[in-house]
Amino acid sequence: MASYRTHRHDVLVIGAGGAGLRAAIEASAAGASVAVVCKSLLGKAHTVMAEGGVAAALANVDERDGWRVHFADTMRGGAYLNNPRMAQIHAQEAPQRVRELEAWGALFDRTADGRILQRNFGGHKYPRLAHVGDRTGLEMIRTLQDHGIHRGIEFYMEHTVTRLLLDDGRVAGAFGYDRERGRFRVFKAGAVVLATGGIGRAYKITSNSWEYTGDGHALAYHAGAELIDMEFVQFHPTGMVWPPSVRGILVTEGVRGEGGVLKNSEGRRFMFDDVPDLYKDQTADDPEEGWRYTQGDRDARRPPELLTRDHVARCIVREIKEGRGSPHGGVYLDIAWIREKLPDHAEHIKKKLPSMYHQFKELADIDITAEAMEVGPTTHYAMGGVKVDADSQMSTVPGLFAAGECAAGLHGANRLGGNSLSDLLVFGKRAGEHAAAFAREHGAGAIDDGQVEAAAAAALAPFERGAGGEGPYAIQHALQEMMQDLVGIVRNAAEMSRALDGIAELRRRAREVGVGGNREYNPGWHTALDLDNLLTVSEAVARAGLEREESRGAHFREDHPQKDPAFGQVNVAIRRGADGEMVVRREPLPPMAPELQQIIEEMK
Amino acid sequence: MAEATFRIWRGDPDGGDFRDYRTEVSEGMVVLDAVHQIQAESAHDLAVRWNCKAGKCGSCSAEVNGHPKLMCMTRLSDLDLAEPVTIEPMKAFPVVRDLVTDVSWNYRVKERIKPFKPRPPDAEDGTWRMAQEDVDRVQEFRKCIECYLCQDVCHVLREHHLHERFAGPRFFVYNAALEMHPLDVEDRRADLKDDDGIGFCNITKCCTKVCPESITITDNAIIPLKERVVDEFYDPIRKLLRVFRRK
Ligand code: SF4
Ligand code: SF4
Ligand code: FES
User: Fold this and answer.
1) Which of A4, A88, A525, B227 lies 20 to 30 A from A502 at CA?
2) Distant-in-sequence, close-in-space partners of A103: CB < 8 Å, separation ≥ 6
3) What are the structural domains, with CATH classification, of chain A?
4) Rounded distance, CA A197 to CA A213, Å?
5) Residue with CA at minimum distance from ligand 1 atom 2
C-alpha cells in the first residue's frame, strides 16, 4: 500500500496562472471550499511572461469599438474555426473582467482623461489592449494573487498532479505529489478545474517555461475527455534568436504596436510584399500610413507587421529560407528607426517597452533604442486543448472543467495577441462558478483505492529502475528536436508520419527511464514523470496535423497549401480509444447563432 | 570551446558542502544555463528553481560568487571564469535542497498585510479616474517580481534573523504600493510600526543595490513610509488626537 495524505475540497483547481487564480476566486466567492495546486511557487506561473496586454472592448481610446467588433476580429483571426458562442461570451464579458481587476488594485496605464489606456495589437481593429507598459501579465497575476490570498483558498505550492481520479465516469479528485519531499497526496474534490496552460516544452525553441508540459491536456485525455484543434500551435513571429541560450524568449508584439518594423538583410520591409486578401482593406498602403496608425491616427490602417501571428511567422520563415535572414538565422526587428520621427525616441522606447529594453540590454548586449533586434519564430501557444461547453467550461467528462490555454474553442485556428489574458479572466471566472455549482449539486465522488495504487506505482517506477535506466533528459531533448523539425511551422504528411514513428519509439524508451537520488526535490524524477504528458500532446499534435489536409491559421501544410472549404466546417477531435490508442475524428463545427453570422457578414 | 568550473552547494537542512562541476561554456550563456547543463550531464537530481529564464518571475534567486543574483540574468561573460564560480542558496531563508530555499515565510508576511481597499468608484459605471503621474509612482513598486533578493541581503533578516518582527524590504515595497495607490483608503501605519518593524531599517540601502527590477526601495518606498509613520505616531498633536479617538 502506498502511503498518502488525503485533502478534501469542493473544488480543486490545477494551475495557478491567470485562469486558475480567477477560477479559484470565483469558486470561493460562490461558497465552495477551494484548493489550488501548482507546480511552482504562487505568483511565478507563465502568465507573468505575458507582455502586450489584455484585449477588451472598453472603447476608452476609440469609441467605435464594441463587443461585436471584438467578436468579428477574433473569428477572422481564428479562420472561423472558433466556437462562436465562446467568442461572443469572451468579447461581451472581457470589459467587465478588466474593470474588476482595477477594483482589486491593478494599475493599468491611463488615458489623458484618467481612464484605462488601450493599445493597438495584431488583428484587432481598434486600440483594444489594456496594458501596463510591457509587463501586463505580471500586473494581472499579482493582482489576482494578492486578492486571492485573502479569500480562504488553500494553496498547495510546488505540487504536481499526475492523474485524475474517476468515479463511474465523473471526476472525483486527483493524485499527485509534493515536489519538495516527494510525498503522495490525494485531493478529493466534487469538481476539478484544469488551468495548466500549454504544451510549448514539446518543442525545442519555445517562449514557454518548464511548466508547460501539456499536463492538463494529458490528464484530461487519460480521463476520457475529448481534445480539439490540437493541430493549431501558434508560433509567435518574434522570439530572440541570439545568443543561443536565450533563443525562443519572447519579444512582445508591443514592439510592432509601437512602430517597430520587420526588415530582411537587404533592408526591405518584406511584410508589405504579401498581404492576405482577407486583410487587404485593413492594411496600410505605405510605411507612412502604418506609422500614423501606430501613433493613434484613427484614419490610418495598420502596418502589415501587425497582421496575424501565423502569417507574420510564415513570412519570416520565407525570408530566412530564401537567404535574406540575419546572421544568426532570424530577421531584423527595428524600433530604433523611430528616431526619425520622435526627438526623444530613446526615452519614449524605454517608457513604452521597459522590459524589452532591459531584456536585450542584459541578455544580448543590445540597446534597442540604437540598434535593430534579431528575431525569429518561437513556439508560443496551443490553440488546441480540452473541448469544453462554451458557457460552463465543462469538458466531456462530468465534473471536469478547463479554462485558459489548456481549453480550446475560443481561438480557433489562430489566437490574436491580447486574447489570451482576456480568455483567462472570462473563462477562468466561468469555470470557477460552474465548478462550484457542480460540486454543490453532485457532492463528492468516491475515491477508488485501485486507481490510487496504480498512480502511486507508476510514479515510483523510475526509481525501481534506478540510475541504471536511461535518464529522462535525453528523451525529452530528442522529442523537442523532433517536434521542432517535423511538426513545426511548415508541415507535410511524410514528416508528420515520421514524427509519429519517432514518438512511438521515444515512448518505448520512456517506459524504461530510470532515476537516481531520492524523492526530495528531484528534478530528474519530475522530468521523468512529465515525459508521458509531453509524448501524449506531441502525438495529438502530429495526428491532428496529419488529419487536417489543408492550410489554415497556424497550421500550414506545404503538401496542401490552400484552404479546403470542407475542412472549414470541422474541428479535428481526439480521444482515447478502448485499447488505449489515440482516436481521431472530424467533428462538425458548433452551429452559429444567426445574429452572430450577421455580425460577421457586416464586418467582413 | 572553453570549459569552466562551477562550485555548487549541494545539501539539505542537515548540512552539505560545495562540489565542483566542469562544463562547457558558450557565448551568451548565463549562470542558470550552466546549472541546467550540469543537471542534464552529471547531476540529474541537482535542485534549482526557475521558470521564465528572462528575469520576470523571480524564481531563480541565489548567491553567485557571494552576490545575491537572478541566475538567469547573470551572464558568464561578466564573471571571472579562470576561478571556480560559486553558486549557493540564499542565506536569509532555510535550505530545502541544493539551491532551493524555503521562502514560505514571505507568503505568510504578505498575508497579514491589510489588503487593497478602494474608495467608491468615481463614475456611474463603477470605474475610477486616475492620472498617469499618480500611477507612475506606484507602478515602480508593482514591477516587483518577488525574487526576495532584497530580503536576502538585508542584515536585519540575514544576520539578526528578526523574521518575526520585521517584514523586510520586499514588504515595505508592497506596503508602499498599497499606501500610495491613488484609490486605496486603508491605513497601515500602525501595522508598519508594530508588526512590520519598519523602525529596524537603518537605511543601509543594500536592498536597493541588489534589486533586479531597479526599484529604488529605500528612497522611494521605505523613507516615505517611515515619514508617514513618524507623522502619525510622533507628532504631538496627532498623539493627542489618537488618545481621543480611542475613547
Ligand atoms: S535599507 Fe533597510 S531594508 Fe534595505 S537592506 Fe538596509 S536595513 Fe534592510
Ligand atoms: S523589491 Fe526588487 S529585490 Fe525585492 S523582491 Fe521585489 S524585485 Fe526582488
Ligand atoms: S527564471 Fe524567472 S527570474 Fe530567473
Assistant:
1) A525
2) B118, B121, B126
3) 237-378 (3.90.700.10), 461-564 (1.20.58.100)
4) 9
5) B201
At A76-115, the pLDDT tens digits run 999 999 999 999 999 999 999 999 999 999 999 999 999 9
Q: Please give the CATH superfamily to which domain B103-237 belongs.
A: Alpha-helical ferredoxin (1.10.1060.10)
CA B94 to chain centre: 15
A331 Cβ neighbours under 8 A, 6+ residues apart: A262, A263, A264, A265, A270, A316, A319, A320, A324, A325, A374, A375, A376
Pick from A135, A22, A144: which is nearest to B116 by CA? A144
CA–CA gap between residue A521 and residue A165 (Å, rounded): 24
- Asked whether A310 and A256 are in contact (CB, 8 A), the reply is no
Matching residue, cell 525553441: A205
Instruction: Give the distance from residue A380's alpha carbon to the nearest chain B alpha carbon, in angstroms.
Output: 13
DSSP class of residue A177 equals E
Model pLDDT for residues B93-125, shown as the tens digit of each residue? 999 999 999 999 999 999 999 999 999 999 998
| B157 pocket-lining for ligand 1 (C-beta < 6 Å) | no
Q: Say whether pLDDT at A321 is over 70.
A: yes
Nearest CA to ligand 2 atom 6: B144
Using an 8 Å Cβ cutoff, are B76 and B34 in contact? yes
Asked if A355 and A135 touch (Cβ cutoff 8 Å), the reply is yes
- pLDDT tens column, A389-421: 999 999 999 999 999 999 999 999 999 999 999
Closest CB to A138 among B104, B132, B145 = B145
Instruction: Report domain extents, chain B.
Output: 2-100, 103-237
CB–CB contact A249 B54 (8 Å): yes
- Taking the centre of ligand 2 as the mean of its atom positions, its distance from the CA of residue B67, in whole angstroms, is 15
